[in-house]
Amino acid sequence: MLNFVDQGRFHFSYGMALAPLADGAGEGDDSILLTAANQLNLAGPEAVQDKSQNFTVANLNLQAGKKAMEMSDFVLAYSYFDNGISFLRKKHWEEHYRLSLELFDLAAKCALTNGDIVSLNLLSEQVIAYARSYEDKLNVLYLVTCSVASSKLPESIEKGLDILANLGIELRGNESSMEACVQETKDLLSTYTDDEILNTRQMTDPTLIMAMKFLGKLGTGMTMIMPGSAPYVMQRIIELSLSHGMSPVSPIGFVYYGSYTAKLGDISEGYHHVKLAVSLLDKVGLRDSAGEVIALCTQVKTYVEPLQATLEYHHDGYAAAMASGDSSQALINTLLNCIGSFFAGSNLQRMRDRFAEAIKLSAERKQLNYMLQAQQVQHSVSKLIGAGEELNYFSEGRNILASNSSVVRSFHYQTAYVSFMFRSYDDMVENIEKYFAFQETTWACLFFAHAVHAFYTGLISFWVARKSSDRQQWHERGEQSKLALKKWAESSRWTFEHKWYLLEAEESYYYNDFEVAELFYEKAISSAKEHKFVHEEALACELAGYFYVELRDTKKAMEHFLRAHKKYHEWGAFGKCESLYKFVEPILSLR
């Protein structure tokens, strides 16, 4: 039996013998390359006998790592890059600068994808210390900016703004409104046909390509906490793309333009441009931005296509993001799919399990912003099921709540939503007021959640208007929601018609126009059933029940409460069923 030293020599000799064959292997035949790298790595740097071999082995690991990245195995890829670095000699930054830079850059990218922030920071420090130019530092600076964004979004945005300023792209000081940026971009795009956009030349300046990556990352972050600044970033991406050529980030500019346009009310125009952005993905060479583009495109599609059908697109977005190593956008697609499924009325027990998986994945990848939002919705799901526990935020979570207005607003919405569903009036009013206080500082682009929030805040507002002394303000809020849902129902009857009808019913109830209210309650119930929104069919029945109680029509009230109970049970909302029964039980005893 060979001893340890002899085993190392054997592995090294075998790997070095395979190395020349790896270079001559045919395309698609990676087995020789990977076997050679594996054998050399088993031997380790101690087995090197000639210093020229260090370069050979390190380079072989670089090639093996790239192959692993092509297979979307970023853990394996990181191990090859890490082994390659271990074979570099002491003065490798001087003697083999390009090899060293590429190994460290790619290892840092894999570390970010794998959620290994400690390794990312160590690798980045080396590049920043030894890079020969500012441009050579840009890749790790970008990766660190992405890492910081997961828990300290304001700091990440400031870093990105500073770096772009160093590259000659100054974004600070711009005060253009979303409407102005969208209109100026619309005027610019009006001079191009879709075919001309899709066939625009490729961007070739490597520094500008990196600048575009920073712009793309800024747009993602700003849309959450600086919505007034985000549209200008979109505008700059499109302007640079049309004047200097398309980069892998260019589709992000177009999908954000479509999203902003749709949010401003032109769903048709927005829908057109988000689809154009998806088509552009195949024209820019790399699909690095595919996860984000598909995520935002899908959200606009929910305003045109049936909600249940659009959710499948997020699976494509997740796969595309993971293929490029973008764990952040993979999680966004996962989270949007989960939240969309909840909004579509999917079984709550399955939803609880899916949110648990999303939370676990977010924690593993250190994506704390998304982890916090998943926890908030999972808490609502658990409450409806009847197993809800109070949320206990980790320290980073409390920091996010202190700095991320979009996350804070979502928290107050979820709390108000649960209070509404369980008829806890005072808690509902307290949290919905806090929700409205953040209305102008969150989410620049259009998500399906905007429609859901409008629906439930509208229902809440009409309820409060019937009880509050400040009737006019609450009625105006409810009416604003009703008009928004009515407009969205024009673009997608399937998803929004029953929501609009239910708001019409609640407003008519507010006006004491009981005949019209009764008509709209029944239309809402029928439409929700037709379009397979079981949870909102239940809700429409429940609210109709309260309406009939007010009219002292006990028979109709009980018919609607019992149907609501049946549909809530079908949804899996056993906690809600119990709560509803407690309200209905005294009525039953009177029959």
Write the layout of secondary structure elements.
Blueprint: H1 4-24, H2 31-43, H3 51-70, H4 74-87, H5 92-95, H6 97-113, H7 117-130, H8 134-149, H9 153-166, H10 178-189, H11 194-198, H12 206-225, H13 230-244, H14 250-263, H15 267-281, H16 290-301, H17 307-310, H18 313-323, H19 327-343, H20 348-364, H21 368-385, H22 395-403, H23 405-421, H24 425-437, H25 448-467, H26 471-491, H27 493-510, H28 514-530, H29 534-550, H30 554-571, H31 574-590
Helix pairs in contact: 1-2, 2-3, 3-4, 3-6, 4-6, 6-7, 6-8, 7-8, 8-9, 8-12, 9-12, 10-13, 12-13, 13-14, 14-15, 14-16, 15-16, 16-18, 16-19, 18-19, 19-20, 19-21, 20-21, 21-23, 23-24, 25-26, 25-27, 26-27, 27-28, 27-29, 28-29, 29-30, 30-31
Report on the structure:
There is one protein chain. It is elongated, with a radius of gyration of 28 Å. It is an all-alpha fold. The relative contact order is 0.05. The protein is built from 31 helices and no strands. The mean pLDDT is about 90. Helix 25 packs parallel to helix 27.
